Amino acid sequence: MNFGALARSLSHSLRLSLGSKKRLSKAPTENDVSEVSTPSVSNSSDSKEEEQLKREHLNQTVAQLNERRQPYRETVELILDKVSELEHTLYEDQQQEFKLRMALERQTERIHELNFSLDTEKQRNERLVQLLRGVDSDSCSESEPESQLLNGIRFDSKGELYGSISPMLMQQRYDELHSSHRQAHRLLAKKDKTIKMLRCDLEVLRGKYDSICADYRNEHRRLNALYTRYLHLQQKKKQQVFILKETLGYASDCILYAQQTIDGCSRGFPIDPQNLHNFNQNFEFFMRSLRSCCCRRRLLELQQEQGVQLEQLQQAQEWKQDEEQQQELSKQETKTNCQPQLEQPKHKRRSHRKREKY
Question: Where do Basic residues bias regions lie (predicted)?
Fold first, then answer.
C-alpha cells in the first residue's frame, strides 16, 4: 500500500473523530437549552433575572467546551501539517529515485558499449600480433607439397587479416601515441628543470644549514665556557663569604673576650688568664683569615688581569688570521688577473718566432 494513501486515510479518520466529538459536544447544549426552555415555558411568571442567569450559565458552559476542544484542534492541525510534509517529501523522493534509475540505465548502456568496443579492439590486436609474429611451422619435417599448401593457407590468412584491419584506425592510433609521446617528453623536461632548481635550492639550504650549525656549535661552546666560569665564580664567592663569616666570628669572639676582661678590670678583679688566652687565640685566627682574604683578593685581581690579557691576545690572533686570509684572497685575485695578461705576450712571441723561421 502506498504511503500517501495511508496518510490520507489517517487524516480522514482523524476528521471523522473530530466530527463525532463535535456532535457529542453539541448534544448537551441542546439538552441544556431544552431544560432551560421547559421551566421557562412552565414558569412564565418568573422574572427576567433568572433567564439572564441561565443564559450566562449557558455561555460559560459553551466557553468551557471550546477551551477543552482547543488543544485537540491544535494537535490535529499539527498532525495534518506533518502528513502534508511527508507526502511532499515522498513525492520528491520518488522523483529523485526515477532520476537515479534513468542515470543507472544510461551508465549500464555505456558500459555495454565500452565492453563491445573493448572486445573488438582485443580481436584486432590479436590479428596484429598474428601478422607480426607469423604462423610457426616446421618446414624441415614436412614435404614440399605440404609446405606449399601451408604457405598458400598462410598467404590467404594474412590477406584476410590485412583486409580486416583499417589503415585509418591505425593512423589514428599512431597519431594519438605520437602526441602522448610528445606530451610525456615535455612533462619530463619540465620535471628535469624543476629537479635542477630544487637541487640548487637544496644546496643553498645545505650551506645555510652548515653555517647555522657552525654558529650554533660556537655559541654552545661559548655558553658552556660562560657557564663554567659562572660556576667557578659562584664557588669562589661562596668561599669568600664563608671566610668573611669566619673572620667576623673570630672578631666578635675577640670583642666578647676583650669586653669581659675590661668589665673585670673595671670592677677591680684581676685579669682572667683563660679570657686572655681565648682573646689571643681568636685574634690570631682573625689575623690569619684576614690575611687569607687579602691574598685571595690579590689572586683574583691577578687572574682577572691574566684573563683580560688572554682575551686581548686571542683577539689579536683572530685579527691576524683575518688579515692573512684577506691577503691570500687578494693574491689569488691578482694571479687570476695576471694570467691572461701573461698569456698574451707569450702568444705574441711564438707568432714572431714563427715569422722569423719562415
Answer: 346-358
**38 pLDDT more than 50:** no
b/e per residue, 155-177, with b = 16+ CB within 10 A? eeeeeeeeeeeeeeeeeeeeeee
| Residue 214 in this model has a pLDDT that exceeds 80 | yes
* DSSP state at residue 271: P
- Range with the poorest average pLDDT among 6-15, 16-25, 73-82: 16-25
Residue 191 pLDDT exceeds 80: yes
| CB 148 within 8 Å of CB 189 | no
How does DSSP assign 179-207, residue by residue? HHHHHHHHHHHHHHHHHHHHHHHHHHHHH
Question: In this structure, what C-alpha cell is assigned to residue 92?
Answer: 520528491
Greater confidence, 313 or 89?
89
Cell digits for 318?
683572530
Cell of 165: 584491419
Task: Give the angle 341-344-348 at the CA atoms, nearest 5°.
Answer: 150
C-alpha cell at 226: 660562560
- Judged by phi (left if over 0) then psi (alpha if -120 to 50, else beta), residue 134 lies in left
Residue 33 contacts residue 55 (beta carbons within 8 Å) = no
Instruction: Please give the average per-residue pLDDT across 327-352, as a whole number.
Output: 53
Q: For residue 273, how many C-alpha atoms fall within 13 Å in the half-sphere facing its CB?
A: 0
Q: Which residue has the cell 669568600?
A: 240
DSSP string, 28-54: HHHHHHHHHHHHHHHTTTS-HHHHHHH
Distance between CA atoms of residues 102 and 106, nearest Å: 6
Is the pLDDT confidence value at 54 over 80? no
Of residues 193, 124, 208, the one with CA closest to residue 160: 124
Locus of grid cell 579492439: 121
The C-alpha atoms of residue 73 and residue 78 are separated, in whole angstroms, by 9
Residue count of the chain: 358
